[in-house]
Specification:
The protein contains 13 helices and 17 strands. The radius of gyration is 26 Å and the shape is globular. By secondary structure, it is α/β, with parallel strands linked by helices. The chain binds flavin mononucleotide (FMN). Flavin mononucleotide (FMN) binds next to helix 2 and strand 4.
């Protein structure tokens, strides 16, 4: 027997075991460190707590731009060693503002210069009062679009109100039209100034990905309205399907205007393997097609490359409402966002869904009729369709809502959430007025506060 050989083998085996244990230890230590760093970062950016001396970053956002910038701002301050806490405006009251010494407000504007939905109550309840905010040093980043008459209307109102309460602005309000990079750079510059550093990292917008136009179907031949298309997009071969949630949007860059992305609600869920869109082809008075709708519905050939990025839309996701009954209300291409929610609910086997959908004529505009009928037959869905031009008097979703007021009340009392998707003027505002008639202004406010009334309107 060769003892030297045996000893060598034992030594080699022992060496391997020690090496393996060291490797395991290193992996465990690295995971622990990663988690500790993540926990530290999250703790520094937790929701606002009254009485702490950190900077407050408050946002009001409808489709997520202001929210995303608020997180970026808070992270930037944190990187510069400044503790920051983040909060939607809706969760702030007069006391919070009176106890705060340094705040950055990031807000968008909707409707006719109105606040986004998640700031309606703040505007109504807090901005209607007089406060002494002389201790508050603040900055405002107002998001909007110059094409609207009330450009950055809510950001301007908030700034004027803060000033009228004695708040001291750290720098002039920065107005941003359509995510304009120069204005955002100005904000980043002001942040480095207040943070006392000049080496803040650049902010980069998420990149666009190349997708493929995989299918297109004209859904409403003969319609009195403009043509509507069901469109399917797929990542380029070899690229994985990214994650998104029902309620999210996409931003599309059309070759004719690569500066201004256009947003569409996603009409599918990742389980479908593709992004579906429901796109109405816009036609201007001079006969030309809308930039993005024309590109997607007519000019892009099948298999063409489409520049796309997913835009998470927290406000319109299910989130806390996943277990609740859902009333989904929409018109026209607003069915897109509602369809994604229905698909998600059916995938989860949640059956308390009620869709109230409006269009012009049943003969031409009943999009996804077979699919909806199948879900109905499976007991997963109640559908009320309202076709405005199928009877002598015009009839819309708000009329159906009013006629079904008792059932609406019953669903709301059973904890239902309401999701509205489609046109702001006409539909969404009339739906809200009808809800006020059914459950009162305070009833609607309670739904908003509880996150049970959400809108994706345009
Ligand atoms: C239906 C609708 C109405 C809008 N109204 C205005 C407006 O009156 N004034 C304005 O400056 N921007 C308006 N905008 C543009 C938004 O404020 C802008 O897109 C902003 O970046 C959205 O930010 P958010 O995702 O945080 O809500 C409107 C956008 C939509 C979709």
């Amino acid at each position: 027997m060769n003892f030297d050989n045996i000893n060598n083998r034992y030594l080699a085996a022992a060496f391997c075991i020690v090496l393996y244990l060291m490797l395991c230890g290193w992996v465990v230590w690295r995971e622990w460190k990663k988690r500790r760093l993540a926990a530290k970062a999250a703790a520094a950016l937790t929701p606002a707590m009254a009485g702490t001396s950190s900077w407050l970053v408050a946002y009001a956002s409808q489709t997520g731009n202001a929210e995303q910038l608020a997180w970026q701002t808070a992270r930037t301050l944190h990187t510069a060693g400044i503790p920051a806490r983040i909060s939607p405006l809706s969760q702030l009251n007069a006391d919070d503002l009176q106890q705060c010494e340094r705040a950055l407000f990031i807000t968008s504007t909707y409707g006719e210069g109105d606040p986004p939905d998640n700031a309606t109550l703040f505007a109504r309840k807090v901005m209607s009062t007089s406060l002494n905010l002389s201790q508050l040093h603040y900055g405002v980043l107002a998001l909007g679009d110059r094409e609207y008459r009330n450009f950055c209307g809510f950001g301007r109102n908030l700034d004027a109100w803060l000033q009228a309460q004695g708040g001291q602005s750290l720098f002039p309000r920065i107005d941003v039209s359509n995510s304009d990079a120069a204005a955002l750079e100005q904000w980043r510059h002001q942040l480095s100034h207040v943070a006392g550093t000049d080496d803040l990292p650049d902010w980069q917008a998420p990149a666009y990905e190349h997708w493929r136009l995989a299918a297109r179907q004209h859904l409403n031949p003969g319609s009195a309205g403009n043509p509507v298309f069901h469109i399917e997009l797929e990542p380029q071969p070899g690229k994985p399907l990214p994650a998104w949630q029902a309620g999210d949007l996409v931003q599309i860059l059309a070759p004719a205007d690569r500066e201004r992305p256009r947003e569409y609600s996603i009409a599918s869920i990742p389980g479908d393997g593709r992004i579906h869109l429901l796109v109405r082809q816009e036609r201007h008075e001079d006969g030309t097609l809308g930039v993005a709708s024309g590109w997607l519905s007519a000019q892009a050939e099948l298999n063409a490359q489409i520049e796309l990025r997913i835009h998470p839309h927290q406000n319109f996701r299910l989130e806390g409402n996943a277990g609740r009954p859902l009333i989904l209300i929409g018109n026209g291409t607003g069915l897109a966002g509602l369809r994604a929610h229905l698909k998600a609910r059916i995938e989860q086997q949640v059956s308390r869904n009620w869709l109230i959908f409006g269009e012009r004529n049943a003969a031409h505009d009943a999009y996804y009729q077979d699919e909806l009928a199948a879900w109905q037959a499976q007991g997963m869905l109640r559908v009320d369709r309202v076709f405005s031009r199928d009877q002598p008097e015009r009839r819309y979703v708000q009329d159906q809502l009013r006629d079904a007021a008792n059932t609406v009340l019953e669903w709301i009392n059973n904890d239902a959430a309401i999701y509205v998707c489609g046109s702001l003027e006409g539909m969404a505002s009339s739906v809200e007025a009808t809800l006020v008639d059914i459950i009162g202004t305070e009833g609607v406010e309670r739904l908003i506060e509880a996150g049970r009334y959400r809108r994706d309107v345009y």
